[in-house]
Sequence to fold (182 residues):
Amino acid sequence: PHREAEEQEEPAARPKAAEREAEHRSDEDADASGAKEDSADEPKKPCHTAVKGEKCFEHVVWSMHEGFHEHPQWYPGLSTKSTFAEFQYVLNLTGTKSQHCPMPCMEKQEHPTTAGCRTASPGEHCYKEALWAKTHGIYEHPEWYGRLTNKSSFEDFQAHLRSKQQADCPEPCPPSPQPVDH
Fold:
């Protein structure tokens, strides 16, 4: 009986941040295995940028302030300069229903027409395709991606799509350096 009481108390005693990290990790595992529910049959919903008091708002804030710094691989194409809406966009594409993140309302960004590199931005068709390739496609159809692996950068997937003339992708910039674990 004493052991059962300890087991029952343990989840309630866990810190909130640890719970969020565990939830995000399980969401990542579900996404990697392709277990995310297909929303292709659902009607298109209007955009909504999360506000304080909503679960999605909490997930976006956690992602921006903790999740990105601890697990940048969960947020391909984003940086410390990415906006709230860009983080919400990535959570909408890669998150599970437990994250409750709708498509955010984003201003249409003007994209440079000059030659040069540019990593695709959230809201662009290329970004959505490269993100799907990195988080789902490489697991479901690795043969489509040549030498790419699940460890390849977002920019590597963007370059691959560009080389195959898919998704109207710009020439990507070299990937940002990732933090080194010590």
About this structure: Residues 1-43, 109-115, 175-182 have pLDDT under 50 and may be disordered.
